[in-house]
Each structure stands twice: as structure tokens, then as C-alpha cells.
Amino acid sequence: MTEITNVSQDDINAAVWNACDTFRGTVDPSIYKDFVLTMLFLKYVSDVWQDHYDGYKQQYGDHPELIAEMLKSERFVLPSDASFYALHNQRHSPGNGERIDKALHAIEEANITKLRDVFQDISFNSNKLGDEQQKNDILRHLLEDFAKPELDLRPSRVGQLDVIGNAYEFLIKNFASTSGKKAGEFYTPPEVSTLMARLMAPKEGDEICDPTCGSGSLLMKCGRLVRESTGSRKYALYGQEAIGSTWALAKMNMFLHGEDNHRIEWGDTIRNPKLLDGAASLKHFDIVVANPPFSLEKWGFEGADADKFSRFRRGVPPRTKGDYAFILHMIETMKPGTGRMAVVVPHGVLFRGAAEGRIRQKLIEENLLDVVIGLPEKLFYGTGIPAAVLVFRKNKADEKVLFIDASRDFEAGKNQNVLREADLQRILDAVAARQPVARYAYLATPAEIAENDFNLNIPRYVDTFEEEATIDLMEVRREREQLKAELVRLELQMDAYLKELGYV
After folding, report:
1. How many other β-carbons are positioned within 10 Å of the β-carbon of residue 191?
2. Residue 234 CA to chain centroid, in angstroms?
3. How far is CA 403 from CA 65, 162, 350, 406, 422, in A?
4. Is the model's pLDDT at 345 over the cut of 90?
5. Residue 356: partners with Cβ closer than 8 Å, 6 or more residues away
6. What residues pair up with 208 in beta bridges, in sequence order?
7. 248 in Cβ contact with 264 (< 8 Å)
8. Which pLDDT tens digit goes with each residue over 448-494?
9. Most buried of 163, 177, 357, 372, CB within 10 angstroms?
């Protein structure tokens, strides 16, 4: 079939966003995001299947058994009664929710190695959509929205797989920005993901992990960099996510971006890490990246002392702040030679004392901390507080720590600030140069950091103070006298005008 190239990304994005109108005003976005994203996945799988079926029929029309055999090797096998079109044909009958759930379970069973448990936390038959009549109406409208010509997602029409993956990312980003903190927890702003991926410089053959992967966007940024720089798909993506529905989003997101070489586990990374090398040790990675939940209160303090992986041998983080629990987990999963990591943290991680101070000191003394980057405020969905990115390496170039104050470089937005390409490049250039830059970057020695009691608060190292220009009092006095004389001249001139006009 001939590929149609005039379908734009913006057209598809607009169409899938308009499909959300079915829910607006009736269901909270933090709930309906799962239904819309899952329906996009179902529609895409159905359209690919239909497209390939039509192609095979054109080639082998008189051999239905051959067509059936060819379809068995599809990326996703689609039972005939589980396709989007079968559901759309029955949309006016009662039971839309139950029918969609059955279709999803049938697809899962037919693709069990790829989709095991992916749909178990997503039920279209849920009473969250209202009573039976309302639920049936909402789902009928949703099926009709996705049946519109704009959302014909056949590869012969839309071309590359990334078009669909990008639409999925577009939806996730918009849900995060419109749904407040709850939805923002699983999404890292794309500019921050790009910065972290580029800091890590992923290469062909790298094993890349995000232990709090959310919807998987940060992992896929790293994978994309490998493809763009080498043209190779020889890399592997690993992740773990604690929230079941978000884990399902990550799995679907990976498949929609063509990232089949992934392993995304569902579970609590601190209490129950699933990415293991055998039963007794954590798997190690070339790159570890994460945007963990900020200062998580219930992170697993109770079992930390007896952790069988010895992740907390440098100290147990505070009971109600889990930031260092995630950092220590990530440190333990870096490969001895090539291991490098980037993690987003709240600024408190840089200077809080007690247990956190002791852990921080040990990480610095072990020469693991490489770079501290202060980011602007209001970058992250659901919080206005500024964050920092910490870069750790197992094989550092020197014993120093580079501090970068990037907090003033951004484009201001109404709700969210944005890092521009120039802002990202300035950070990356400073990291590459590893030299002091006035009012922006400072390379601190271990002795200097020790003098500051291992406090990493960026203003202690990067002086952003700008001296005001010296005031010449005699010059100010001369200007004052000139202004007074000018005022006298103007008043005399005004009096002359008034007298001429007969007012005086």
C-alpha cells in the first residue's frame, strides 16, 4: 500500500485530545486518562492488524489459510471478536464496558508473553464511569471518537510507528499538566528527560534502567539517543514502577514506540526490587536514571536495616523522607566500570543534616558524586519548587564536584516554566568543560566541600551576586543642580505663556 505522508502529528494529537471531551465534566482526568490511553493502544493494534490483513488479502486472496498463518507472526495477535471494530459495531447494545474488558483480556491471553497483567488494573466496566446507562453512553461516544477518519492509525496512512508513540506521549503530558499533582507524579517534563539522557550519553550496547519509571518517557529518551547517534537498536531498557495502572501505561508506551527490547517490572523498588541478577543480588546497569517521588513519607523505613541487598550500609534515610533510599538503590545498581546515573531531587537533599548528612558525606568521600545542577522553579507538574539533578559516576575524571546554577535560565510560562534548547546546551557545555564559569559554575575540591560540612547547597559554591555600579555622588549633585536650573527655566517660560494668553 502507498504511504500517505500528509497526515501531521498535530492532526493526530488534536484528534486524540478531542476524544477526551467525552469524559470532561463527568470524570476526573486522573481517572479517565487510563481509558483514553488504553483505547488508543487498542485502536492502533486493531488498525495495524487490519492494514496487514488487507495487504495479505491483496497478495493471497484465494488462500485464507495462508493469510491466517501470516497473521500469526504479527507483533500483536488480535482475536477477531476483540478488535476495536468488533466493539464499535456493537456500541449501541448494552454492556459496552464488559465487552471492552473481555476484548482486552482476550488480547492479553493471545499475547501473554508481552502483555501479561497489563490490563488488569484498567476496567472499562468500572462504576467510576457512573451508572450502567451513563457508562454505556460514555463508552459509545469514546468508540465513536476513535472511529473518526482522523484517528485511522493504519501504518499505510500514518507511516512511522513514532507518530502513534508521540501521540501517546502528547496525551500523557497533557494529562499531567491538567490533572495536578496526582497525574504529574508519573511524568517527567520532556526537557528534563532530554537533559538527563544527554548527560548520560547512552551508547550502543548499554543497559539502561529507571527504577521509578512512571510512563517510561525518560527510558525512551535514552533509547532514542542511541538510535540517533549510532543508528543501532542494540540497547536494553529496564524499569520498575510501583503503581499498577502507571506500569501498564509504561508497557503500552514502550510498544507504541517500537521499544520491544524492554523489561518493565511492577512493584515497589525499595521494598521489593524486581530487577535482579539471580536471587541474591541486584542487576547492574551502565546507566541509571530516575525522577523518584520527592521526599516520599512511607518509603519502607521499617525493613531498611535488614535489607538483604545492603543498599543502606552507608546509613538508613529518615523515616519520613525517602529521597536517599532511591539514591542509594540507584548507586548499588551501577556497573563497576561504566556505571553512571542521573537523579532528580528536591533541594533539601543537598543540605539536610542528621542521617541524610552522613549518607551524603560517605557518597562524596567515595568520590561518586560528579555534578550538582540547580534547575529553575516550576518545571515539574504538581509542584512549583525548584529541583536539582545529581550526576554520579563509578569512574570519575577527578575527585572534584562540579556545581552548576542553571536556575535563572528558562522561558517563563503561565503554569510551567520551560528549559529551552539553549539552556540545555549551556548546562551540557559546562559539564563537558568542567571549568568554573562566573556566576554559573564552580569546580569544588573535596577539601572545600569538607569545609562546608559536606553541605551541597549550590549558593555556597556558585556566587551569583552581582555588584551594583558605584555611585559618583559629585556627579549626582551636578545632575541635580542642572535639573533644578532646567526647572527654573521651564517655570519662567510657562509664566510667559500664561501672561501672553491673559491668565496672569
Report:
1. 19
2. 23
3. 65, 36, 11, 10, 19
4. yes
5. 317, 318, 321, 323, 324, 349
6. 237, 287
7. no
8. 999 999 999 999 999 876 556 667 788 888 888 888 888 888 888 88
9. 372
Specify the pLDDT at position 32: 85
For the chain, the residue count is 504
* Closest by CA position to 388, among listed 338, 316, 461, 320: 461
Asked if 322 and 299 touch (Cβ cutoff 8 Å), the reply is yes
Cell numbers describing residue 391: 550526576
Q: What is the DSSP string of 133-192?
A: HHHHHHHHHHHHHHTSGGG---HHHH-SHHHHHHHHHHHHHHHHHHS-HHHHTT---HHH
The predicted model scores a pTM of: 0.86
Contact between residue 255 and residue 233 where contact means Cβ atoms under 8 Å apart: no
Burial class (CB in 10 A: 0-12, 13-18, 19+), 279: exposed
Nearest to 236 by CA among 205, 258, 268: 205
User: Are the C-beta atoms of residues 255 and 167 closer than 8 Å to each other?
Assistant: no
Q: What per-residue confidence (pLDDT) applies to 184?
A: 40
φ and ψ at residue 76, rounded to 5 degrees: -130, 130
Which cell is 270 given?
A: 525499595
Q: Are 343 and 289 in contact (CB under 8 A)?
A: yes
Burial group, residue 136, by CB count within 10 angstroms (0-12, 13-18, 19+): buried
User: Computed over its alpha carbons, how large is the radius of gyration of the chain?
Assistant: 29
Q: Could you tell me which of 371, 369, 372, 373 has the C-alpha nearest to residue 359? A: 369
The alpha carbon of residue 361 and the mean position of all alpha carbons in its chain are separated, in whole angstroms, by 29
Q: State the Cα–Cα distance between residues 389 and 123, nearest whole angstrom.
A: 37
